[in-house]
Write a structure and sequence with these properties.
The complex is a heterodimer of chains A (280) and B (538). By secondary structure, chain A is mainly α. Chain A contains twelve helices and no strands. In chain B, the strands form four sheets. In chain B, strands 3, 4, 5, 6, 7, 8, 9, 10, 11, 12, 15, 16, 17 and 18 form a 14-stranded antiparallel beta sheet that branches. A three-stranded antiparallel beta sheet of chain B has the order 1-2-19, with no helix packed on it. Chain B is elongated. The chains are: A mainly alpha (280), B alpha+beta (538). At the A-B interface, helix 3, helix 5 and helix 9 of A face helix 3, helix 5 and helix 9 of B.
């Protein structure tokens, strides 16, 4: 850590940062940590690749024969890969903090920056920035794949499926919302991993949380199903991808993303409190 | 830790055969003395059984009666099925032109055509149930017409029938679940089919022929306890026309609409005692003859029109008509328990790398392959026991609750045993796979992520119907998630058209074949791990 960014540190008066590093330094430190190991870069590439590949494969597997009404939400279909991409993002969110616990680096970090909440905030900011950037590429690629593939599979303008375009309000919401969704998933896993510390347990917990609701909900009766889908981080959060049949959604798109944001905030709060209270 | 475990023994343990038992004991001590791991395994089992109970309780907590009456709850909401001779729920709905047959005898006919009407293709179906949609000519794949011998006109009674079908040639079917193929090809005026059904005691034999002189035996069936007088005659059934597809993100969409078929028979000849002497027509149905159908008889030529089906009810399909569960549904929490087990299993080795304990372990037991074998035995056995307890609890308690709350499809005890033991074995072998990946990668995050992506994610995506069925089938054939096939409780009937998807509890591989795929992956990973553990510095 201390060898990171020597130029920035040397230019400051020595007295100023005996235990009081500014937020810029904290951000710079976290950025250096993520930049200088290969893991995060590969995970970001994997996020983009998995999302776009799964989206394209799913879109290519669906056809709408002429003469049949197809109840397909093409924007949502084109963004199916997010369901995979979120798992990779969750792993990245865990690694950002758990990696430091497994190597003991966390003690160095907290010695250099005793304001622990500041450390977590800096990690959250850098992580979110990176995931939003990768998410934008992944969502853009997925929509582009959908735009290219769909018309050849019967989803033509004449059939009632205009080509996917960001100029279309609902499609723009689905696209921007999906990017935000990935960012919130990253924050959720960062919060849980900070609270749990053990990386394997954190990964297990997050993946279980992400996929529990979509699996259990369909097996329950409608009343329970609706409630579960309203509170589940994935089921509520992915409502943002819907562009048709909004009235039949268990929760409205932006409210759904709000539920996920509440999950992420609660996880970060718990993680931040435990980070402050516990010995590292 | 391992050295402590061997302390009570004589100071110089032999490095021979009994050394392995000590190694297993040392590994068992390591597993049981880490509180987090024990808690992890117990929590995994509790979550697994708990989700099963949630499904059993919430599967159908309340419902509104169709007539707008007071809300009912529990079993009262469940569908009521006609029950076949084997105790399974069946559909028994067809048009029957019959007369009694006493004692042994036979019925021979020639079928010259099978035609029908199906709902319009464009899906523009009127929502008003009083307006019948404009139909168009066509046949559903399993439209059937032929000769049947049936215990009585009571729906669900025993029967044997030989028939022509729209797309599957001549078939001999009996007691709802059995189906034997006869002469292939469609029936027409230039290519008619001759059918014969013969009763001798409780043995019924079916024959088919292209010309009425050269006969082929399609098969024989035994209807145990068949009455001396049975109902025999001509029948036509035509299953519902389905346009059902999986939705992305769960559920199904589409429509199930009635279809109709008409079979034309001539050269009807009987042998044996037929006391009534004349034919009468009935629509056989649990609902009391509400279906469409009828027959015309002119100059020995019969034209029989009917709809419905004589077949088992498919678990999980929308056609089952109400809240119903299979024992597979009660174990849907397996994926959550599996995640917990995989985390513990991967950490069982990666924690040693992280803390440097692996060097002590390997110094104490220099034969490294045996260390890994001992770890695999310990984690496999521990997760098997935990998994079996969770599966047994989920199945027995869950089934008790589910029977009161909804309709639970019956399963034989051998099926229940296979599902319970198979689920425990699935957890055990998956744990060994996670251990092997942990040994290969030496990092818990990487090991857990990869093993969860390989086993749990394909299952999750298939159950939630996120991907199209074609893609899912291949995922569930090739990835370690194929092992979830061991949990399939309801059989897949080729003679019934339905949406057989992982989301409704049907897997592309046979139960033990799917499990073998996971075993192959685990063996491969364990073999690689042994090779690398020997070659690498710890």
């Amino acid at each position: 850590m201390s060898q990171a960014g020597p130029a920035g540190q040397l230019s400051l008066p020595l007295a100023r940062h005996a235990g009081l590093m500014g937020i810029r330094d904290a951000l710079h430190a976290e950025w250096t940590k993520l930049r200088t190991v290969t893991g995060p870069a590969w995970l970001l590439i994997a996020t983009v690749a998995a999302t776009v590949a799964i989206s394209a494969a799913t879109t290519a597997a669906v056809r709408c024969p002429s003469g049949i009404a197809c109840p397909v939400d093409t924007a949502k279909l084109s963004l199916t890969g997010i369901q995979f991409g979120q798992a990779v993002v969750a792993v990245l969110g865990v690694l950002v903090i758990s990696g430091e616990y497994s190597t003991g680096m966390i003690r160095t970090t907290l010695t250099a920056m005793p304001r622990r909440i500041g450390v977590l905030a800096a990690k959250a900011a850098v992580l979110t920035g990176l995931v939003l950037a990768a998410g934008t590429i992944a969502v853009g690629g997925s929509l582009l794949a959908g735009r290219l593939i769909l018309p050849g599979h019967g989803f033509t303008e004449a059939h009632g499926f205009p080509p996917l375009s960001l100029g279309d309000g609902p499609v723009l919401r689905a696209a921007a919302g999906s990017v935000l969704y990935l960012g919130l998933i990253a924050l959720l896993s960062l919060g849980i991993a900070t609270a749990v510390r053990e990386p394997a347990a954190a990964i297990g917990l997050i993946l279980g949380l992400l996929y529990l609701f979509p699996i259990v909900a369909p097996l329950l009766d409608q009343h329970w199903q609706r409630h579960l889908e309203q509170i589940g981080p994935t089921t509520a959060g992915l409502a943002i991808q819907a562009t048709t049949g909004l009235h039949s959604l268990p929760i409205s798109p932006w409210a759904g993303l709000g539920v996920l944001a509440a999950w992420a905030a609660a996880a970060l709060l718990a993680g931040g409190l435990l980070l402050r209270l516990r010995d590292a | 830790m391992s050295t402590q475990a061997t302390m009570p023994h004589p100071p110089a343990p032999q490095s021979g055969r009994d050394g392995f038992a000590q190694l297993v004991r040392a590994e068992w001590t390591k597993l049981r003395t880490v509180r987090g791991w024990v808690i992890g395994l117990v929590v995994a089992a509790l979550v697994m059984a708990g989700i099963g109970l949630l499904i059993a309780v919430g599967g159908s907590s309340s419902c509104q009666s169709a007539s707008g009456g007071p809300a009912r709850s529990g079993r009262a909401c469940g569908p009521t099925f006609t029950v076949g001779p084997g105790g399974e729920p069946v559909t028994d709905s067809f048009y029957f032109v019959r007369q009694p047959l006493t004692g042994n005898g036979s019925l021979t006919v020639r079928v010259t055509s099978l035609t029908g009407r199906i709902p319009p293709a464009n899906g523009d179906v009127s929502l008003n149930p009083n307006v019948s949609p404009d139909t168009r000519p066509g046949l559903v794949s399993w439209a059937k017409s032929g000769v049947i011998i049936k215990e009585s006109t009571r729906p669900g009674s025993a029967y044997a029938a030989i028939m022509v079908t729209a797309d599957h040639g001549v078939r001999l079917q009996d007691n709802y679940t059995s189906d034997t193929a006869g002469r292939p090809g469609a029936v027409s005026a230039v290519s008619p089919r001759w059918l014969r059904l013969t009763r001798s005691g409780d043995i019924i034999t079916g024959y088919d022929s292209a010309d009425g002189t050269h006969w082929t035996q399609v098969g024989t069936v035994q209807l145990a306890g068949l009455s001396p007088t049975v109902q025999a005659g001509l029948f036509t059934a035509s299953p519902a026309y389905q346009t059902i597809s999986s939705n992305f993100g769960g559920g199904t969409s589409g429509s199930i609409l009635p279809s109709q078929a008409t079979g034309v028979f001539d050269h009807v000849s009987r042998s044996g005692r037929w006391p009534a002497g004349t034919w009468s027509g009935d629509y056989i149905d649990a609902a009391g003859g509400s279906g469409a159908g009828g027959y015309h008889q002119t100059n020995g030529r019969f034209s029989v029109t009917g709809s419905g089906d004589i077949a088992p009810v498919i678990a999980g399909s929308d056609a089952s008509g109400g809240p119903s569960l299979t024992i597979t549904n009660l174990l849907v929490g397996t994926f959550a328990g599996l995640i917990g087990v995989l985390v513990v299993a991967a950490m069982f080795i990666t924690a040693e790398y992280r803390r440097g304990l692996i060097r002590t372990t390997l110094a104490a037991s220099p034969r490294r392959g045996r260390v890994l074998a001992a770890k695999a035995i310990v984690i496999g056995a521990a997760t098997f026991v935990v998994g079996l307890a969770a599966a047994a609890a989920g199945l027995t308690v869950g089934a008790q609750i589910a029977r009161h709350q909804a309709y639970l499809f019956p399963a034989t005890w051998t099926t229940e045993l296979r599902v319970a033991v198979g689920t425990a074995a699935l957890l055990a072998v998956a744990a060994v796979l996670a251990l092997a990946l942990g040994a290969l990668l030496r990092r818990s995050v990487a090991a857990v992520s990869i093993v969860v992506v390989a086993i749990v994610l394909p299952y999750i995506l298939s159950v939630a119907s996120v991907l199209p069925v074609g893609v899912l089938d291949w995922l569930l054939r090739l990835t370690p998630a194929a092992a979830f096939a061991i949990q399939q409780a309801a059989p897949q009937y080729p003679q019934v058209t339905a949406l057989y998807s992982p989301g409704t509890g049907y897997f592309p591989l046979a139960p033990w074949a799917g499990f073998a795929v996971l075993c192959a992956w685990a063996a491969l990973a364990l073999g690689l791990a042994v090779v690398l553990l020997r070659r690498r510095d710890a």
